[in-house]
Amino acid sequence: xxxxxxxxxxxxxxxxxxxxxxxxxxxxxxxxxxxxxxxxxxxxxxxxxxxxxxxxxxxxxxxxxxxxxxxxxxxxxxxxxxxxxxxxxxxxxxxxxxxxxxxxxxxxxxxxxxxxxxxxxxxxxxxxxxxxxxxxxxxxxxxxxxxxxxxxxxxxxxxxxxxxxxxxxxxxxxxxxxxxxxxxxxxxxxxxxxxxxxxxxxxxxxxxxxxxxxxxxxxxxxxxxxxxxxxxxxxxxxxxxxxxxxxxxxxxxxxxxxxxxxxxxxxxxxxxxxxxxxxxxxxxxxxxxxxxxxxxxxxxxxxxxxxxxxxxxxxxxxxxxxxxxxxxxxxxxxxxxxxxxxxxxxxxxxxxxxxxx
Length: 357
Prior knowledge:
Layout: H1 3-6, E1 12-18, E2 23-31, E3 37-38, E4 41-44, H2 49-69, E5 75-82, H3 91-102, E6 108-109, H4 118-124, H5 145-164, E7 173-177, H6 183-192, E8 196-200, H7 204-213, E9 218-219, H8 223-227, E10 233-236, H9 245-250, E11 255-256, H10 269-275, E12 279-280, H11 283-286, H12 289-295, H13 303-311, H14 313-327, H15 331-346
Parallel strand pairs: 3-5, 3-6, 4-5, 7-8, 7-10, 8-9, 10-11, 11-12
Antiparallel strand pairs: 1-2, 2-5
Helix pairs in contact: 2-15, 3-4, 5-6, 5-12, 5-13, 5-14, 12-13, 14-15
């Protein structure tokens, strides 16, 4: 299969490199029908270029749907830098990457993702005008994981309303897989709401931070152990593909609602969830808070305004569930249909955003 076949539904895929700094990156622009593409930069030690390409194509596609469903006038894009952020990240590499983003002329705005932080965005911005998620000191929104977690919590409250008749998670057992950037903020919301929280993470310092901040939280040794636990809600908050056939078969949870992107391991998992009576809150619907936060920078950042917009994820999630019930389809398919309808009806007739047009 050729690269063109793999990215057949994408407007543009750029392979970027800078041998002097070691930069190897892929930038994928899925759609600019609603406006310039916005999406984070993931810095990850992919096993192969093929794995990196598959990830960036899936992530950028998800960003188009996320922006559309969130009501933003933005398209979807994403970038991946191939390497270990702990050992390969450097100022020369990030600035070289910034020049590659700048060369796209504003068709793609970058932000933080797994392996990148607001301080990295400040370095990228020294070479590039199309950067969001910058530090507060530089007029940016800072850590976008704050409102990502807040939005996931709102989506979870919407799911609780459908499943149990009310938005409270008090007394419910919520399992959080991954307590890094987003997960540890989500844990705080859940604890404050009275939930019983169980967590796991492969990164020991992340677990220690949660233990220190929330002594009532229970820690288990693996995602497999967490999935097999007695849960009311399962929240995947690490990397994608978390919802496999095996996980769905094992889960006791009534709700799945988490921050991870591309949670469904393959098409058909959404139907398996529905068949087992598990209410799935579509990932790109509930985790849009971070996108809303960094998008707010484009009009001069206000945390209060961004948080108010992110609070709307509760109503958006309820609308997805209502549409799913009326159309007789799983929520994941309902979310896709709603996002596609907005891209189709509101999207520019020319179908592609160009600088200065």
